[in-house]
Amino acid sequence: MGIRTEVAKAIVEKDSVIEQLMLAFLGGGHVLFEDYPGLAKTLMANSFSKAIGCGFKRVQFTPDLLPADITGTFILNRSTSQFELRKGPIFTNILLADEINRAPPKTQSALLEAMQEFQVTLEGDTHKLPGPFMVVATQNPIEYEGTYPLPEAQIDRFLMRLSIGYPSLKGEAEILRRRRARKTDEVAMTSVSSPAVILEMQRAIEDVHVDADIENYIVSIVHETRKHGQVEVGASPRGSLALMKLSQAKAAVAGRDYVLPDDVKDIAVPALAHRLILKPDPWIKGIKPKVIIDKVLSTVPVPKARA
Fold this sequence. Notes:
- The chain is an alpha/beta fold.
- It has helices at residues 2-7, 15-26, 41-51, 67-71, 105-108, 110-117, 152-155, 169-182, 195-205, 212-227, 237-253, 261-272, 280-284, 289-299, and strands at residues 31-34, 56-60, 72-77, 82-87, 94-98, 119-122, 125-128, 134-139, 160-162, 231-233, 277-278.
């Protein structure tokens, strides 16, 4: 797709991550980037918004950030003696919540209604957010001092958890080469879509066929996460819905109007891993939820193609 090509002008070697971000957006969901500093999380979100012609705002989450700093507030217009709404940065298409776990729970919760209902309530009045809308949140996986861990209810609202990861030796050299050639930090990009087109694509994805066998395959995978011996809490029905939405988006991007088992398998880890809470013993041993999902995928029977 042209979107992937445009974003790849700024992001080197990460086509799979770009595609997954695109799938989440087309699926109408939100993304949590859990990665180390300096790996282009902000650049990824900003470049993606430019490529699709959508609005972009960034909020740096800090301990003193207030909910009104995100959603907005009413201020007095002295000339009219009326209170007027000053909209916060959440009124955009793509909101980057940078280091989301550095803000206290009250501020984090300001995103909950927006993420679930695509609206915010201020002084009792409901305000719809512009469509399409997506929250891209980031957090550092190794820094815990001065942070407020995201509650499970909020983590579960992210359609996917992604990691960009370090580039290869060749890829990092390419980053330097491109920067020298540009002679500026800015990357020239062309918008190849628009909010209206994205909304139409999101509606079209709803028409991608999901066979009954695929539905059973999806729910079987999710149910196995709940029964796994190393898992304290498995994925909820929201996880099943996420897996279905992303599978439909993946099929549509591949040019199909039906979902294959491979669509489900390819997207299962980023769709489900962050929803699992491991038991203390495997957690202490450093076992990752990704390993659990991979084991589940290897045990759940794959539907056979119908003749």
